[in-house]
Design brief:
The chain is an alpha/beta fold. About 25% of the residues lie in helices and about 35% in strands. The longest helix is centred in the middle third of the chain and has 15 residues. The protein is elongated and about 55 Å long.
Length: about 130
């Protein structure tokens, strides 16, 4: 089995509902995403996948859909107050935790046809969540 990893960085803000810690307040993170892609065999170029294809597709989506956006639970009562300010908001069905974001990125990469096997979402330099099928 061959495995390659593409690393992507982006910035985002969020807060968590029904949480007693300091993450209940609006705050931001510098995220690092590591996407593992695997294959039993290499393609005609000797690759699992071209890193540039992952960059263009997955990083392109992250840059447009998540980077410098406020990620909030769709039930967050702050949304009606932020909308008139034209703040870029992305709503999720659940809290925008590292776990939820790892799965969101995994699902997107898989839907694009990439042989993704695991996504690690680093919320801070010392804390990350992993999602794999």
């Amino acid at each position: 089995m061959f495995k390659v990893t593409k690393e992507i960085h982006f910035c985002y803000g969020h807060r968590l509902l029904n949480y007693e810690g300091k993450c209940r307040f609006l705050h931001g993170h510098n995220a690092k995403v590591q996407i593992d892609l695997s294959s039993e065999a290499l393609d005609h170029r000797g690759m699992v996948i071209d890193f540039n294809d992952v960059k263009q597709t997955v990083q392109g989506w992250i840059d447009s859909a998540l980077d410098h956006k406020m990620l909030l639970n769709k039930a967050d009562p702050l949304i009606p107050h932020l909308n008139p300010l034209k703040e870029p908001i992305v709503t999720l069905e659940i809290n925008p935790t590292a776990e939820a974001l790892a799965r969101m990125i995994f699902d997107y990469a898989k839907a694009q046809g990439f042989p993704v096997t695991e996504v690690r979402f680093w919320e801070t330099p010392t804390s990350f969540a992993t999602y794999h099928a």
